[in-house]
């Protein structure tokens, strides 16, 4: 693959645009406007989830852009995710159809299991669930997700927040192989071993929190604000955020930067017409800290908690 190619071919032949718009914390009109702005700018990949409570707005924006003739349905890659409260095999198809209805679409490009851990179901409105975790085996959940592919309702299915051992367990017991694992990945948490493992099994790593949720007032994270980051930005005539996203693309992952700001939505997509040289790619390794931004600490005692293993 050329580093400047805009798509990754998944293990089922499907093509995934290599930069997607993240939408966590894009609520209501923000989600609607940012999805529309992103499509106008050229994004063809949107990442949402049942728990983000914005599937309706994301879907509305997509449908409007289709109606305006800006895109066709097949031009846009839509990912959503099965919530923790819906892991019970008897609920999976109904939960999927809820997302499909929210989005107003007749199929989803990629349906992810958001986490390997299930939460007790109370009702669909309690989207975030509670910390009453269940012992539902993620393999049983996976088998129900496979049926969504059989039905033609999900073009592909994948994992999120799975460690290597959990991924292997799915691979050894599945009928339909996951195409991706969506995990935290950015210069301060580089996922070197998990990336190598995914590559070996022909899975794509999608990078959530690709900018590590910047806090400009604290000049955090360093890879966006320190002197080296500023020097790289100057050298390439880009922002440090663009350098970081470009870095992720060059190490083979698919970044999903979230923004509700049209200027930053455009900035995060303007990463296809330059390339970091090998020395600068290597220089980014110094930012790795091994500290997660999203540790899901409340679930740490669970038998399927993914982050006790080294990777
Ligand atoms: N599978 C999972 O468990 C998870 C999935 N995700 C997915 O990944 C996406 C991205 O992760 P997220 O947690 O949102 O974190 P990001 O690293 O994408 O950071 C988002 C934050 O960065 C700001 N920002 C965006 N672009 C820039 C820029 N160019 N310069 C400076 N600041 C910028 C945004 O503010 P503003 O909007 O004002 O621009 C927002 O506050 C999520 O939105 C979601 O879709 C995220 C976490 C977990
Ligand atoms: O996808 C997600 C975005 O990040 C949140 C945590 O900060 C998660 O709870 C959620 O699953």
UniProtKB/TrEMBL annotation:
Record-annotated NADP-dependent oxidoreductase domain positions: 20-286
Active site per database record: 52 (proton donor)
Record-marked site positions (Lowers pKa of active site Tyr): 81
Residues annotated for substrate binding in this entry: 114
Pfam families per record: Aldo_ket_red
Gene Ontology molecular function terms on file: oxidoreductase activity
CDD domains xref list: AKR_AKR2E1-5
Superkingdom per UniProt: Eukaryota
UniProt name for this protein: Aldo-keto reductase family 1 member B1
Gene: LOC117572203
């Amino acid at each position: 693959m050329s580093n400047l190619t805009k798509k990754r071919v998944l293990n089922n032949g499907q093509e995934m645009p290599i930069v997607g718009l993240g939408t966590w914390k894009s609520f209501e009109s923000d989600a609607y406007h940012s999805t529309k702005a992103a499509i106008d700018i050229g994004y063809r990949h949107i990442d949402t989830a049942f728990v983000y409570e914005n599937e309706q707005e994301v879907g509305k924006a997509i449908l409007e852009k289709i109606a305006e003739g800006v895109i066709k349905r097949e031009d846009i890659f839509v990912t959503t995710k099965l919530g923790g409260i819906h892991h019970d095999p008897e609920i999976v198809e109904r939960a999927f159809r809820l997302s499909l209805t929210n989005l107003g679409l007749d199929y989803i490009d990629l349906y992810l299991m958001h986490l390997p851990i299930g939460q007790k179901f109370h009702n669909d409105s309690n989207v975030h669930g509670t910390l009453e975790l269940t012992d539902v085996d993620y393999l049983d959940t996976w088998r129900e997700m496979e049926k969504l592919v059989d039905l033609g309702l999900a073009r592909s299915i994948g994992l999120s927040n799975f460690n290597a051992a959990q991924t292997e367990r799915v691979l050894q017991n599945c009928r339909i192989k996951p195409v991706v694992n969506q995990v935290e990945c950015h210069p301060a948490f580089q996922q070197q071993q998990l990336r190598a493992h995914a590559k070996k099994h022909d899975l794509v790593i999608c990078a959530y929190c690709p900018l590590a949720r910047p806090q400009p007032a604290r000049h955090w994270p360093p890879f966006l604000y320190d002197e080296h980051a500023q020097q790289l930005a100057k050298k390439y005539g880009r922002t440090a955020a663009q350098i970081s996203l470009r870095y992720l693309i060059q190490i083979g992952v698919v970044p999903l930067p979230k923004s509700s700001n049209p200027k930053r939505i455009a900035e995060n997509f303007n990463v296809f017409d330059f390339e970091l040289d090998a020395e600068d790619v290597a220089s980014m390794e110094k930012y790795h800290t091994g500290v997660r931004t999203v540790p899901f600490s409340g679930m740490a005692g669970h038998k399927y908690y993914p982050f006790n293993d080294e990777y």
